[in-house]
Amino acid sequence: MARRPEQARGRRGAEAEGLVCAISVRHAKVLVGDRLLRCRYGFDVRDREGPFTRTVAAGDRVRIETPPRSEPLIASVLPRTNYLSRLHGPTRREQIIVANPDRILIVSAAAEPSFRPRLVDRVLVASERAGAHAVVVVNKVDLAGDRAEVDDWAGLYRALGYAVFLTSVATGEGIPELRESLSGGITVACGQSGVGKSSLLAALDSRLELRTQPISERWGKGQHTTTRVELFPFVGGGFLADTPGVKSFGIAGLEASDVAVFFREFQPFIESCRFHSCTHTHEPDCAVARAAVEGRIDPRRFESYLRIVTGEEPEAGDDSPADEDVGEDAGDDGSES
Ligand code: GDP
Ligand code: ZN
After folding, report:
1. Which structural domains are found in the chain, ordered by start?
2. Radius of gyration (Cα) for the chain, nearest Å?
């Protein structure tokens, strides 16, 4: 077996554990204690054939070695508890957006743009799949034409056990409560553009205002050197990562039977469908469809489910164009250093 280059150099040097805040092709930005280190990838964590596009992801806990008179390197990735991923189109491999997320912050708007429950439901599926808590935010409640309607949607998601916050950056409503609920752990924020996500993040923690701008100018050698997903320390403790898109978030590649599992309120009914392989779309004696008709499953949620499994786009214009770039470098940072 070939010796690892870092072993061949002799002593392994100082060791430490750190949190990966951002990755690029040649380097990762790792928080070790209160210091951000630019680390190379060690032999064991170089990208190779496998289920994932990258071996190391933002949110990973890693072991760092600093060989004498050399840059620190990531020697290994500690086991992940969970991760949020998407299917990377060109390679058909899984692309980890953030490793070890504790919660997914789903930012939507009561108006301008109008509330889109299908998008919320898609991200809820992704959150369930990732094993992260979902926090649903309906922002711009000051612009709501019909407050009772907003409260009704909030009631639906709360009844399912999800945390829901109604916020307004304009009036400050709901902001302190939301800030409180995000303290500790890793939060991943997502939302369709225009819902006020940037404004909301800035209102939650003013330090996030500049930080969630494109990061390539502040770190690395220039444009396209770093991914768009980066973890930032959050005011109440923990970290926050912003992601640009929502559309294909963690849904791609799921079979209907998998998606149904992530609609948590379907669970009591799935067993009672006539066919074990029921997709709950057209089959006779489908207990899930019956429950939706009888109102034991909210018909709006069943409708979302059908749209997801029939591959129908949730709504036109759901995404920022940058979505395709989530978590992936637009380019290489050039030379090996
Ligand atoms: P993003 O694309 O989701 O990041 O949205 P922005 O933060 O850029 O906000 C889009 C627009 O909505 C901006 O003009 C904001 O000032 C405005 N906005 C954001 N939050 C609120 C809110 O709670 N109420 C109102 N009335 N406007 C808001
Ligand atoms: Zn069924």
Report:
1. 5-79 (2.40.50.140), 85-242 (3.40.50.300), 256-309 (1.10.40.50)
2. 22
